[in-house]
Amino acid sequence: MPDNKPRLLVARVFPPDVMARAARDYDCVVNDRDANWTGADVIARAGGVDAILTSARTKYPADVIRDLPATVRMLATFSVGYEHIDIAAAKARGLVVSNTPDVLTEAVADLTILLLLAASRRAREAFEMLSGDRWVKIGGWKPTQFLGAGPQGKVLGILGMGRIGRAAAARARAMGMVIHYHNRSRLAPDLEQGAVYHDTPQSLLKVSQFLSIHCESTPETRHLVNREGIALMPPGAIVVNTARGDIIDDDALIEALESGRLAAAGLDVFNGEPDVDKRYFTLKNAFILPHIGSATVETRNAMGFRALDNLDAFFRGAEPRDRLA
Length: 325
Ligand code: DGY
Fold this sequence. Notes:
Oligomer: single chain
Largest sheet: 7 strands, parallel
Structural class: alpha/beta
Bound molecules: (2R)-2,3-dihydroxypropanoic acid
Strand order of the largest sheet: 8-7-6-9-10-11-12
Number of helices: 12
CATH superfamily of the largest domain: NAD(P)-binding Rossmann-like Domain
């Protein structure tokens, strides 16, 4: 790194090893209180700053990108998702943008399986019964208690067969599931690994006894899992979402969970999070987690290091590996 360290606005408190490396190599201005900064908050603090290390919680639409001080030349997001950044506006302004792909693939795929099994084995209901001290009252173990659905031999439909979708498929295959998928384009046989390709999401939904969502959030995927889509799925199907909340229409999913049209859902991401639709709080067949897909020490460190690698490359005049704009 140059002697004169670039000035970096660190817009969240990232894991300690990431903060230490950032402080070693950059002149850091840190969001010490780990507040959820808006775009305006970032702009207000970015005077004289060369680059910003951000999370996906702060949104960078075109007007925020326009109003960033002229000194800001790069925006590195600590996330694989980048729907919070207007990439076209960044390109138009000459703002370099990078994300952190690859490093969270395994952690998110692990959590996909956790959700799939927790939903299908009715973990929430069982946990609430036991922790509510009702096991004695209901007479203890019974042969018919909490019967769920086993994954073996069932079709797992994967919506979005990118890195994370494929890693989830590998785990599901090991459990004896049959993999079908929809993707914008069909994968080569070595990546497909025998999975059955569907050229429309609707065709995939029709066969998905389990559905796992791994596509990006785009105008095309918004509310892809809606009333019409759910009506196509086999009765008693199970939906898992570790991608983005807006791919599901909450009204449609909740209605289907309440009626039993769908057996269960496992959700790590939500529309409007962290302000989650409160109906999920009382739906026993919804196993819900607060967006912890990538939350392992190893993964969050790797995400931070990858973001810093991208910044380092930029400031030594090289091409950032994960450049989006
Ligand atoms: C990601 O990396 O996109 C995670 O969802 C965290 O925002």
